UniProtKB/TrEMBL annotation:
Pfam families reported for this sequence: GntR (PF00392)
Zinc-finger listed as a keyword: no
SMART domains in UniProt: HTH_GNTR (SM00345)
InterPro entries named in the record: Tscrpt_reg_HTH_GntR, WH-like_DNA-bd_sf, WH_DNA-bd_sf
Database matches in SUPFAM superfamilies: Winged helix' DNA-binding domain
PROSITE patterns linked to this entry: HTH_GNTR
All residue ranges annotated as the HTH gntR-type domain in the record: 9-77
Domain of life: Bacteria
Keywords on record: DNA-binding, Transcription, Transcription regulation
Name of the protein described by the UniProt record: GntR family transcriptional regulator
Matching PANTHER family: GNTR-FAMILY TRANSCRIPTIONAL REGULATOR, HTH-TYPE TRANSCRIPTIONAL REPRESSOR YTRA
Length: 117
């Protein structure tokens, strides 16, 4: 299945975001290698230079590191740093809009089922 990309952000950023979600989910684990640039380019059907740019963005955020001759590896503490960043982003940007929408719809905490998937 070919991944779909939107016009909302550059493809490299969309890929970086997808890879960050995978890191947040623990895949790969801290200290483990990411797939190669070629493997990611093939998997996502994009140019290897786009993959390299996405990996550079993750490197700049301290989530992965390059090990010369070995590839890209998830840094220690990356998952927790990413979780902290995402929590802050959610609380500052997403939650106020979501809370306002819930209020407009007349929904309260008891109307929400946290256990369903």
């Amino acid at each position: 299945m070919t991944p779909t990309w939107t016009d909302q952000a550059p493809i490299y950023q969309q890929l970086a975001d997808r890879l960050a979600v995978q890191l947040l989910d623990g895949h790969p684990s801290e200290g483990e290698a990411l797939p190669s640039v070629r493997a990611l380019a093939s998997q996502y059907v994009i140019n290897p230079l786009t993959v390299t740019r996405a990996l550079q963005a993750l490197t700049e955020h301290g989530l992965i590191e390059s090990r010369r001759g070995l590839g890209m590896y998830v840094t220690a503490g990356a998952r927790e740093r990413l979780r902290s960043q995402e929590r802050e982003r959610f609380l500052q940007r997403d939650w106020p809009a979501l809370r306002a929408r819930l209020q407009r719809l007349g929904l309260s905490a008891k109307d929400l089922n946290w256990e369903s998937t």
